[in-house]
Amino acid sequence: xxxxxxxxxxxxxxxxxxxxxxxxxxxxxxxxxxxxxxxxxxxxxxxxxxxxxxxxxxxxxxxxxxxxxxxxxxxxxxxxxxxxxxxxxxxxxxxxxxxxxxxxxxxxxxxxxxxxxxxxxxxxxxxxxxxxxxxxxxxxxxxxxxxxxxxxxxxxxxxxxxxxxxxxxxxxxxxx
Length: 176
Description:
The chain has 176 residues and is of the alpha+beta class. The chain has helices at residues 2-18, 25-40, 86-117, 154-161, and strands at residues 48-58, 62-70, 126-133, 147-153, 172-175.
């Protein structure tokens, strides 16, 4: 009789695990594509998306999306142009500094949209967007972050998207 109860408990555990909701790959992929398109449309001279956005769902934690972005294109050293001028370096830096606010807003919007579109992610779990920024060795990147991370609890992000609560305090921002 004890073996029957153990077998029933094991069967119930397996059945419960198989019926757990988790985001389908198609839903995660849709968020990835949306983020790529948003980054590419941020400026008249589109940001260079160095690699496509990648998203994963971590059971018990939430959904995490990462991308690598170059905020401005500049001249590259070549046999015909071996040294990049200080003026070019300054122009690239100024353009990147100018584009940070738009990138941060894009990331906030992406958090809200991901929270709304990933129905299977529980409200208590996190939605995270991380962007690594590309700098060339000859660039002046002082005072600029190499990575921006934004995250929030899905339920609070949904409430903010529906204007039930303010976004302040809902989104945790870290810049490294």
